Amino acid sequence: MILPLYGTAVLNHGFGAESPRVVARLRSLGTNEPSDGHDFYVVRSDTELVRSIEEKRSSIFVINDDVSLAGSAVSAFDRVLSVSAKFEYLRSGDVVGVHVPTGRFRTLFRSNSRHNSFLVTERCNNYCLMCSQPPKDVDDRWILDEIRESLPLLPKSTPTLTFTGGEPLSDWARFIDILADCRDLHPDTAIQVLTNGRAFASSEIVDAWKAVNHPSLIAAIPVYASVDYIHDYVVQAKGAFDETILGILKLKDRGQRVEVRVVLHAHTAPTIAETSRWISRNLPFVDHVALMGMENTGFAIANENSLWIDPMDYRESLSEGVRTLADTGINVSIYNLPRCVLDASIWPYAVQSISDWKNGYVEECRRCIEKSKCSGLFTSGRPRQSRGIRAIQ
Amino acid sequence: MARFVAAKAFGSPSGELTLLPFNFERTGNAQFLVSNMVGDFIRLTEDEINKVIDLKLNPGDGLYEKAYAAHLITGTQQKAQQQLLALRLRSRMSFLREMTPLHMFVVTLRCEHSCPYCQVSRQSTDRSRFDMSEATAQRALDIAFESKSSRIKIEFQGGEPLLNFDLIQKIVHAAKAKSATTGKKADFVIATNLALLNDEILRYCKDNEVLLSTSLDGPPDLHNKNRPRPGGNSYELAVNGIRRAQQVLGRDRVGALMTTTESSLDRVDQIIEEYLKLGLDGIFLRPLSPFGFAVKTKQYHRYDTKRWLRFFERGLRRILELNHQGTPFREFYSALVVTRMLTDKPIGYVDLRSPAGAGIGALVYNYDGYVYASDEGRMLAETGDNAFRLGHVNTHDYSSLVLSDTLIDTISASLTQCAPECSDCVFESHCGANPVHHHATQGDIVGIKPLSDFCERQKGTMRLLLDMLENSPRDAAILRSWASI
Ligand code: SF4
Ligand code: SF4
């Protein structure tokens, strides 16, 4: 099941012209939490509508396919947003960003998910063959403002947050401000930044990153090969390998945490044993290495013919790579690959990594004893199934 | 999607490539062993190495990929590989941050053994002539605490140091007081034949966390032949001593070292068996040292390096077999070399590093107050050769000792990084400078390496270990597990 994470409000009422964008935090009726101008009370039915009037709520968020429900009562509230019932998963504590003129909104934060991530920008200086979020050269700096507005609304107990893109460091100085906000507002929340790492080739940027002095921050950086042009080809940018490796060295030189990520597809998977050996020899000081099955979405669909490789066809090479990394004492994980396509010897490294809103299982999985520990399959994009999917018994 | 560009477009044309430093050696018909700047090995054919050197390689030809990943080539506009090599080299050499971590105190020359290969000890009861004085010990300690290391190790040597146990106690006491005021920690070890070990000494070692290091050369007949003493019971005393020390101090608090003599060479299995029987976790298969009496008594030339290499290989294979059968046991020299081959850990092992460990790795304070750059250096002095005498505790301090012309000349002239033969040797990253050895055997601190037994031994052991790592997965797995990764 895929959760819809964005849509268009069927009704928005009461928003002034001063700002086209509004960040709304959802709240439950009948509660007494302190609230501010960001809070909207969730209304799912007639009864709740009546209650919200009784409770003198000024802003409501109606989730119901019947537009007339909200329409009937706009005058009773300062602000009303109404969305269709397919967003019924939204609940108290969730945060949505709304573009008032069009009513378009995105779910920015789900309070009951372990996989919250903020898209920082769609801009990127790489153009990866398999990019799941194809870059756009647009001025989307409003997103940075939206994130800064959202952060104070998140619960302090949020365990982890991911920042992704595009390349989050495209507008690096403003992104560093966001990290500083995270440090001040959510000191107990671990922050992961998915970056191509090229920005860190600049000492000025690494120094700024370090100066944030965040208690739990990690840069997750892809390295696709031990050879310059193969990496550069995968990310479609000449010189990227050099900058990325330099960036990793500079981060580690300043004591910053780094995860290396390798997405496995036809240009990277057949050499994963070599790449792992190279990482073991040259970057044994990185904090984590993630070897990741590819999500067949975004550009990966456009390049499907050249990228698709059945995980069964790199099974041995992957096992060898994992063993090499683990023997070197590197903390290694396998993401996004179901157990049945992996050699049992490397199951201990396989993690249930696919975000909860887009993972799934197939018929075969019902008979599988490993299902509770298995990552399952991507349901997003155009899912491709390995010939190796076979219930483990 | 036309917007994507083909792989070919991302390779550097050979005009934009440049070589990084590497060494190589012909290993057979048109075959080469190649090592990059930090000692990662790859094999190339003659044709391949010529193409690399001429930069006649292209993305996609297989050789480009091999040479690039091994840091033999880089792009003229690129920086990452050079930074990577710099960082790895810095890590490998960072043992230099700890200046002179080891200090050996020769508390007496007297010994109740009369080993034929030992030239230093004296069968004497004349304490005044051959024991270190308290004043000398105090000065030596001052110098030891002046060294820049954050933590030092004090090793008591002899003769038989337990013959002057009083002084050992005084030194330990004074060192602890100095640690308390300076914050510099000191560890202690007594190198002893254990013949004089008693309960009182053991209790003292336990209370003061003093380690014991002893000699065990093999089965009784071999050990006793190497180490004659009145009663002919050296073996029995050593073995009993090890057992008692293990009980009282703990298994990891007593170690044993073997001395190799000609009689050892055909008996490596039995020697290993002795170590196993005592529950020791490994053995250091050592070459015979060429110093002092060993040279004089012609012991040293009695066997050649090839015989020693056979001894070493046989021993190593026996040890690997034990591991395959489920008994964990190490050969420490191999562990050291393999760690250097497979990791960038800083290994400052005194006899296998460049810059050499003389003086900046260890200092030796002789019983009479003279200070030497190494233990072998003071042994040479006993034969009348003062080449490695750096000064005297009464006239020198730490700085004037390590900055003495003798030491600076010794270390700078012997660097493997620039010495003839060594500087372009494929094993250079994992080898070491051994100026004292080459002075003793060739009368020259640099040494002519093709004539050097040290060099022959280094090459022999490294070739063997490399062959096992490459061609014997079972053995490689054990060796890797020793590599303290
Ligand atoms: S059968 Fe399904 S649950 Fe079992 S390992 Fe394969 S994908 Fe996972
Ligand atoms: S001593 Fe021999 S093996 Fe060692 S670096 Fe020099 S030439 Fe090479």
Description:
- The complex is a heterodimer of chains A (393) and B (485).
- Chain A has eleven helices and 17 strands.
- Chain A has helices at 46-54, 67-71, 142-150, 172-185, 203-212, 228-235, 240-253, 272-282, 299-302, 304-307, 315-327, and strands spanning 6-8, 11-13, 21-27, 39-43, 59-63, 79-83, 95-99, 104-109, 117-119, 160-164, 190-194, 217-222, 257-264, 288-293, 332-335, 359-360, 377-378.
- Chain A is 26% helix and 20% strand.
- An eight-stranded mixed sheet of chain A has the order 1-8-7-3-4-5-6-2. A seven-stranded parallel sheet of chain A has the order 9-10-11-12-13-14-15, with helices on one face.
- The longest helix of chain A is centred in the middle third of the chain and has 14 residues, at 172-185.
- Chain A is an alpha/beta fold and 393 residues long.
- In chain B, 46% of the residues are buried.
- Chain B has helices spanning 46-53, 63-69, 80-93, 127-130, 134-146, 165-182, 199-208, 220-226, 234-249, 268-277, 293-296, 305-324, 332-342, 375-382, 398-402, 405-414, 435-442, 453-471, 473-482, and strands at residues 17-19, 22-28, 31-36, 41-45, 73-75, 102-106, 151-157, 185-191, 210-215, 254-257, 282-283, 330-331, 362-365, 370-372, 389-392.
- The longest helix of chain B has 20 residues, at 305-324.
- Classes of the chains: A alpha/beta (393), B alpha/beta (485).
- Chains A and B meet through helix 6, helix 7 and helix 8 of A and helix 2 and helix 3 of B.
- Residues 338-340, 361, 364-365, 368, 370-371, 374, 376, 389, 391-392 of chain A line the site of one iron/sulfur cluster (SF4).
